[in-house]
Each structure stands twice: as C-alpha cells, then as structure tokens.
Fold this protein.
Amino acid sequence: MLKKIVFLFILFISNNVHAEKLLAHAQLESFLENTTGLSATFEQTLQDQYGGVLQQSAGTFLMQRPGKFRWDYTLPYPQNIISNGKKIWMFDSELEQVNVRPYTQMLASSPISLLDKKQRLSVEFNIEPMASDNTLQWVKLLPKTVESDFKEIQVGLQHGKIKTMRFIDNFEQQTQITFEQLKLNPDIDSSTFEFSIPEGADVVGDF
C-alpha cells in the first residue's frame, strides 16, 4: 500500500511538472501572439563563458510591430538603437557616430527578433522545457538554423509576461535582459521610431 501511495505521489508530481512546462510554452506563444507593442525599463548583463561579468547596462525599451523598436541605454554610457522597420540606427553620443544598417540585415542578431516574430516559434526553434524557479517559468529555444548568432535562448515568464531573456552565443557568452515596468500594447507615436542624424556626426553604413 505504501509503495502504491509513493508511486501515485511521484506520478502526480511528474504530471504537474510536465503540465507546468507545457504551460510556460503556451504562455510564451500567447504572449507573442497577443502583443503588438511593449514598453519597459531593462537591465542587461553580459557574461563570459565562465560566468564572469563583462558588462552591465540599463535603459528603456519600446517596441511596436512590425519592425519598430527603440533601445535607449543610459548606463554605462548613453547609446540609442532605433528601428523604423526599414533601417536601424545605432547612435553613440560620446563618439558622435551613427551606424546605419538595413533592418533585415541586423534583425537576426538582435534580441528584439524574438519579440517581433509573426509566426509560431516552432517554425524557427526547437522548443524544450526547463525547470521553473520560485518566480519564473522557463522555456528553452534552440534555433533550427546554424546561421543564428545564438545557440540557445532561454525565456523566463512571470504571470504570463516575458520577464527575463537569456541569449547564449556560439562562444558560450551569455546576455541576460531583465524587464521591469513592462506595459503591453501601449500607445506609442510612430515618430518615436525615427532618427535624425545629428549635425556633425560621423555616419557609417547604408544611409
């Protein structure tokens, strides 16, 4: 009798864990499907393959589908990355330099690419469950193409919303982005995603 109770308990726990992992995947798909825009503050940490911190940064983030986004870094120094869906401008105010690239050229290597997906994740990723922690439910995404700049993406969800994303590249470096004050589908003026090149700034790339 005791063995049967233990077996049923283990089965119950295993089923709950499996259901929780499936729930995280479904929550991520639902979040992406129902999101047309985002606004948030963020903290970003870059670690080497040994876990050593290489850089920490922070700022604000705006996104509007399709293809429009804006990362305004305030730490460790001011920097702006802006897309209107056709071009991406990367402006370093200290260097007074603007790097301009076509949107399609830069999208694959940008963390924003995951948030701007129009098709189901399973088209581009193999999806694997991960163990949840005390506050987040995790999903692992493995790109199907070898051309991806990232070998693995981990997404942590809290109350059905993306809270943390980890991007692990082919050199085992990890970029973690954690969002705070996340707002779904805010009203954002489209001019927010345009950029006027400052007078006197050096311009590199396609412009």
In short: Residues 47 and 104 are 27 Å apart (CA to CA). DSSP finds three helices and twelve strands in the chain. The chain has one domain: 2-205.
